[in-house]
Amino acid sequence: MKRLENKKMAKYAVLLAILVTSGCGKAGAIDADQAANGSQQGNVPSVVDMNTPITLKIYSQALQTTFDLEVTERIKQKFPNVTIELLGDKNGIEKSLTQHIINNNIPDLLWLPKPNDVQIVKDLGLAYDLNGLIGKNKFDLSRFDDAALENARRQGDNGEMYVIPWQVEGFTMFYNLDIFDRFGIEYPKDGMTWPEVLELGKRLTRTDNGVNYRGFDPGYYPIYKQQFGLSVYDWNTGKTTFATDPKWKTILDFLRTAYQVPGNYPADNKVVMNRSAFCYSMTVAMLPWSAYFQPFIDARKTGLNFNVVSLPTWPDAPGRGTAGIGAAWAVSSKSQHKDQAFEIIKFLTSDEVEIANSRIGFAPALKLQTAKDQFGADLPGIEGINVKAVFKLPFTPVPKTVPLLETAAEQFMFTVISEAGSGAKDPNTALREIQELADKELEKQKK
């Protein structure tokens, strides 16, 4: 999943603008007491002169308004002599960066939606090993979440560090209080397992006054593989793992069981990756989804009464959350201003900025408890929501992947889930078939 879809970005830009202009703490500013609780990495003395006027080009998929609020305005206050130029993305990372290169618009910095996007950057010759700059700046990597840091480290083949984590994508399980209240069933709790959720969902799946209520929608499918630390393909063999790793059958069996509860298969056949029935028709009782709360807060205005608990876990992978894959920063190998670019990374990953971003709903990639405690504090409409559930589980590192190959292989999974969920095909047959299709597609993509 991209860090933010363009439509989401437009909505969120409006929210951030409101926060900036309405006196809500300057979009997440922190006071002296809060600052004292962090290490303030951004205050480490600079090894480069940032007072000389300079223009830095930054590649990003964000809209200009969102980019200005999260990056440009912050940098302007910290480094008034630095001018930031956004190199936008209209066609995806590979095509957009290729076009920028053709136009001789070489970025100094890259704001990547997730760490493994650096594999695309590497193919374009723009990846740069940051180890030298990390040592030169005495940049403290121990401040970062262990899984986020490991996901970044795994992008290198021989110890290279191509990206610095910035934000993580947390997940929770959303639930509709009104549906639970209607049927007199206790709310879900933090610390549940997926089998427990299935049983609870069965009790809630029923028709009442002509309305079909679904107890549990499996939601965003990748969470299930991430909690297992599962990869779509094996780097050693160059083949996909659908038919060879038994965890895929565990996942597919679970999804099939969930969808085959009588009345729980969606009438529109839209399985996984769909939150509309929860947010808008309000007929789904439980939905695991990204802790990007704004769409759910928007739905509150039209009657959605929701809360969240921590993401349930697999019994044979207890205490393991999702991958926490989120935004990361990279320095371009072609930049003529690598020291200044890294100084910007130091600032944007400082306690100050990470706390400010956390307050407006972007989970920090730091271990810093102060930042986690203030998550969502400046989000209008978040009142009463159990936002601490976002950080209940530690994140789980995932194997290195090439995004283009991963997408090519995984595109068949959604059909398999639909076929298994509807009872059209048994999981073993479905997984064998998907392995054959995906392996052929991988070979095609490699050529």
Automatic annotation (TrEMBL):
Question: To which protein family does this belong?
Answer: Belongs to the bacterial solute-binding protein 1 family.
Which PANTHER family does this chain map to? Answer: ARABINOSE-BINDING PROTEIN-RELATED, SN-GLYCEROL-3-PHOSPHATE-BINDING PERIPLASMIC PROTEIN UGPB
- Protein location: Cell envelope
Q: Which UniProt keywords apply?
A: Signal, Transport
Q: Which species does this protein come from?
A: Paenibacillus hodogayensis
| Entry keyword Coiled coil | no
Primary subcellular site in the record, as a coarse category:
other
Family matches, as InterPro entries: Bact_solute-bd_prot1, SBP
Please report the name of this protein according to its UniProt entry.
ABC transporter substrate-binding protein
**Residues in the signal sequence:** 1-27
**Domain of life, per lineage:** Bacteria
